[in-house]
Design a protein that fits this description.
This protein has a 5-stranded antiparallel sheet with strand order 2-3-4-7-8, sandwiched between helices. Strand 7 and strand 8 (126-132) form a beta hairpin. The protein contains 3 helices and 9 strands; from the N terminus they run E-H-E-E-E-E-E-E-E-H-H-E. The chain is of the alpha+beta class and 188 residues long. The protein has helices spanning 26-41, 133-146, 159-169; strands at 6-7, 46-48, 58-64, 70-82, 96-98, 106-108, 114-120, 126-132, 178-179. The chain has a single domain, classed as Alpha-Beta Complex (Peptide Deformylase). The structure holds zinc ion (ZN). Zinc ion binds next to helix 2.
Length: 188
């Protein structure tokens, strides 16, 4: 088990679609174990394989809702169906999103309220999960990672400009930058 370095925006693996996984091998299971450990150390509520530099369609998530119910799982070769995205401007607080590959920053983004995930689990079985609200948001965010899309790519005016400025200020946006949870401290 190991905490892995997290790629920061600009690393090419974050910006192109990830490869299909196929069979769930011991190698895949070992990667998922490390991804879960890294997600917890970060800490984050979701993590996709490209964020640890691996070109594979895998994400993990682990989130506790307001009622204390825990939602966690592994999605390999997922498909995601979403309800029509809402219209209008995002709410600065309710729609505030962050990403471990743009560490320490948050910007508001509207997301579809409902999502249906179809994916393979660690036992190689296909499953379905219906999600709404924040869990649906997490699934959309992580699924986007497998398409090579970061949430900052989806921001609308004026947040898109603010995100570009923040990324530039940190000198991110070019290859070769990462941070290691537990060692590097970042303000959130
Ligand atoms: Zn992210």
């Amino acid at each position: 088990m190991a905490v892995l370095p997290l790629c920061i925006t600009g690393e090419p693996v974050l910006h192109s679609p990830a490869a299909e996984v196929g069979a769930v091998t011991d190698e895949v299971r070992a990667l998922v174990t490390d991804m879960i450990e890294t997600m917890k150390a970060a800490p984050g509520v979701g993590l996709a394989a490209p964020q640890v530099g691996v070109d594979a369609r895998i994400f993990v998530y682990d989130w506790v809702d307001d009622s204390g119910e825990r939602h966690s799982g592994t999605a390999i070769d997922p498909e995601l169906l979403v309800s029509p995205p809402p219209l209008g401007d995002p709410d600065d607080e309710e729609d505030s999103e962050g990403c471990l590959s743009v560490p320490g920053e948050r910007f508001p983004l509207r997301r579809s309220e409902r999502a249906l995930l179809r994916a393979t689990d660690l036992d190689g079985r296909r499953y379905e999960l219906e999600a709404h609200g924040w869990l649906a948001r997490i699934l959309q965010h992580e699924y986007d990672h497998l398409q090579g899309i970061l949430y900052v790519d989806r921001l609308t005016h004026p947040h898109a400009k603010a995100a570009l400025k923040a990324i530039k200020k940190q000198s991110w946006g070019s290859p070769g930058q990462s941070w290691l949870p537990g060692r590097d401290h970042l303000e959130d």
